[in-house]
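User: Fold both of these, please.

Assistant: Here is the first one.
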Amino acid sequence: MEIVPITRAKARFSEIIARLIHRKEAVLITRKRTPVAAIVPYAEWAERETSKQKGLAAAAGALADFDAEIDELIEAVYDARMKAKDREVLL
């Protein structure tokens, strides 16, 4: 990743974009040596945006097929608790 101070980026913006297009590599923009922005190829940005939208929403319904198994496990836990002699169980 190329690191470019903001003053140079302002002066040579079209050159930076042209290199970005050809090299397909991100450019980090700094101000007083502190990163303030990044310019990334569109394909990379689009991929990141798509993966952000998936996140937890992609997991929604992932366990829908396990309803019966989960119910069985819960039932087994309650049965084990009722049979346990080492402590009093209040249900």
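And the second sequence with its predicted structure:
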Amino acid sequence: MVRSDLAGSTQPRSPGKMTTTMEQVKTKSVEPHTRFALPEVNWDELNEPGAYVERGSGDLYRVPKEAIIPGGSPIIHKESIGSSRLVQVSKNPFVTTLEARLRCAQHNIDPNF
């Protein structure tokens, strides 16, 4: 009789004798190994396309490269009494909403999208 275990190896088995193969399982932590800060800018300093989350409101802004062409007409108009900070959660303005929310969670930003 031949016994096959989960790891895919086979071992001969003698009648009346039970053999067990134990395999060590190594687990990886779900926590990131290195922490890094996401770039944070004011509206006036916005000069790179990407997906940005406003720190105060948690709103997501997708800024394509066409929106920041020098001398071009700005696509985003925002008026506010207070200043707001934008955190760049991705260099890709079309990042999935799920991934953007995940990055917010990793950096303690409360998303509102």
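The two ends are 59 Å apart (CA to CA).
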